[in-house]
Structures are given as C-alpha cells and as structure tokens.
Amino acid sequence: MVTTTLTTRIPRSWVIPSQTAGSSRAVNEATLRVLTFLMFCEIFLQRIALPVGASQVQVILPITYVCLAIMLRRGGLARNSGRMTGYLVAMAGCSLSALVCFLRQKQDTSFTSLLLLLATYVPFIYGLRPADARALLPRVLDRFLIMITALAGLALFQFAIQLVGVPYTDVVHDIVPPDFLMHGFNTSYPVQYGSSLYKSNAFICLEASFCSQFLGFGIVVCVLRGGHWWRLPMFILAILSTVSGTGLLLLACAGVLLAVHKGAKFALSALAGVSLIVLIVSFTPASSIFAARATETSSSTSSGSLRFVQPYQRTWDSLGKDPLTVVFGTGPGFADRDASAFFTRTGLPLNYALVPKLILEYGVLGTVVFLSFIVAMFVRGSQSFVLSGSVLIFYTVLSGGLLAPVVTGLGLLLVAWFTVSPQDEAQARLDGAGPAPPNSPPSTQRRAHAGV
C-alpha cells in the first residue's frame, strides 16, 4: 500500500469489489436498509424543504438526523474520537471568525447561518466499523447505481417528451405547495435564450446541474464497481439531456484520477471513448449549444461566469486590504445575502461555491481549519481515492455545498462514513481483543469507538 501525508492508504485495485466480511451481521442488514432509505431521500427529495421562520431547511437534513439516531441506537454507526476532534477544531475556528465579525458589527452577518453550519456537520463525527465499512460500501454503491438509473430514465423521459411536442412543465412545482419547495435555484431553465426546450432536471433535481453531477457520479461508481456497463450509454445520454457542463467536468476530473491509478492504457482508451462521443454529438443539433457553453465564461450573464468567475472576483473585492477582514471574513451568511442582492439587482443567480463562500464569510482562519477537516473526512482512510477525489471536486468547486445538505449528504453516503484509517483498524482490533463485560452483547456487535 502507498501511504500519503494524510496516512491515506490507496488501494492497489481501482475497482471496489464486493466483500463478505461482516456482511452476515444482523446489524449490517439493518444499517443497509437505513442507508438505502437515506440515499433515496438524498436523490429524490432534494427539492423538498421545511419552512423555518423566514428561511428554509432542506428536508434531507432532519431525515439525516433521524437515520443517524436509528443507526446509533442499533450499533450501525459509532462516534469517532478523531472525527470529533477535527469537527471541534473546525467549528471553533469558524465560530471565532464569526465572533470577531459580530464584535466588529459587520453588516449582513447571520447567527442562524453559523448555527446551521454547526448542525450540518455533526453527522461527520460518526463512522462505520472497519469491517462493516468494507462490507457495506459496495452494496450501498450498487443501490446508488439502481437509483441513478431511475434518475437517468426520468431525465431522458423529460427531455424526450419535449422533443415530440409536449410543452415543458414543472410537475413537482405543480404538485408540492410552494412553501415546501426549495427557493433560489434555477430549476426550470431553457437550453438557450428564447428556446422552448428546457434542460432536463429529471423533474426532481434542484437544478439541471445537480442532475448532471449525480449522473456523473453514476458513471464514476459504475466504472469503480467494474460492471453494469450497459448503464453507461444511458447515463451519458441523460447527462447530455441536462445540457450542463458540471457533470462533464466531474467526469473529466474522475478520468484524470482513474488515469493516474490505471495508467497510460486506460488514459488512451478513455480519450478514444470521449473522442467518439464528441464526434457523434458534433453531428447533432446539440453541438452548437455545447460549443456555446464551452466559451460562456467570457459573458458576465452566463451560468459559467456566475458559477466559476464572478463569485471569486467579488470575494477578492470584498476582502479588500483590511487585514482583519482577510483573516476573519465578513461574517456568516454574507455570501447568501450578497447573492440575493445581486439577483434583485440583475435578475441573475450568483452561485458561491464552497471555497469563495468560506473565504468571504470566515476568512483565512475559518477556511484553513474547515478545509483541513473536510479533506480529512473525505480522503483519510478512503477505500477509493478516485471516489474521494470526485466527491471533493463536487463538494468544493462544482456546487454551493457549504450549507447544502443534499451535497454534504452525498459525501457522507459515498465516502465519509466508510473511511477506514490505520488507527481505526488498530483500535477496532484492540476493542475486539478485550473480554466482553458481563451482560454485554458479543464483541462482533459492540460499537467501535475508533480514534483517527
């Protein structure tokens, strides 16, 4: 095994194989059912929200807490002392930055935003036992593939019925009361200005870009599981129906990671496959649309500029030359209010990704401690550095994921709860070696209290 500076053990095989170790434990089957339910909610209920005063909370957050409590009670998850330490350090750094901003009476700061940050990342302090993590991850990924296949089917259906003349309609918006739908997302968006053809979001995704990214993860997982190849054409066509480049960017990053892992032969094969897809698309009417999307960051009104250019420019301008603002930021919630004011003024949705939002709201101090915590959660002890790298790109660059439970939840379900560091394994062996106290369950069913 290769050991990095994060003591991450990189598996020699790029495939995530099925394993039988620990799979016979009754608690594993119960945990798998809860994880499957949570995964379903993560994918298919991402547009549903609960009104809380004047703001909203994605329904996936309270569902995550309920599922977390069930798995803790049954012994499926256990608190991890190393994760707890990382969480406390990260939240202390962000809270200190927020306190300084409150004391400086910075405008547009929100105590609610800070509380939501603290609550969103509590689930990261828990994890599965090493044996259970290895046994359950392949099974969770297989169920993820089934759900993404259904998502791809919905995306293709939504786009196909438009092609045959059925006018676009937001079905979910027509069914769910407005107070219980997430606001502030470009759910319905034409493929280009003035077109009657709308990008596919599979009806249930927050945006077409989210649909594209989830489908991209479907392709990544399909490759990592080393099978189900018949799904790939379906996933690729579904991504094209979203007319969103973020899923393709995710695939490009995953392809680079796979090439590093698998070598030049895979890189050449992947390049040939991509070239064939590009050639086929070039003979379709979609070629002009994708060509325009490839250069759209040069336009200040394009989604590429609003996602990948202007948030970074505005963050740089807002920090200015004030050393205290650079170190401690402008206060929690500032990026959201800035985006709202920008939308009111221009009618354009500004999308702050995690990095510019962190720097803008919590300064260099909060950014360094928080990113250190997140990288450790997604990378240290990962069973697949390709999957971890893809999740990190999705989390930090492609989506506004700091306070989005749909983003953090995917990171938990694909990587964070399944990481196994050497210290976790050593602690699990020590826990299993000791005698069981009187009237306690067998050692195979005791909770692991792993230290990183």
From TrEMBL:
Keywords: Membrane, Transmembrane, Transmembrane helix. It comes from the Bacteria. The chain crosses the membrane at residues 55-72, 84-105, 111-128, 140-161, 201-224, 236-260, 266-292, 359-379, 391-420. Residues 428-452 are annotated as: Disordered. This is O-antigen polymerase. It comes from Frankia umida. The lineage of its organism: Bacteria, Bacillati, Actinomycetota, Actinomycetes, Frankiales.
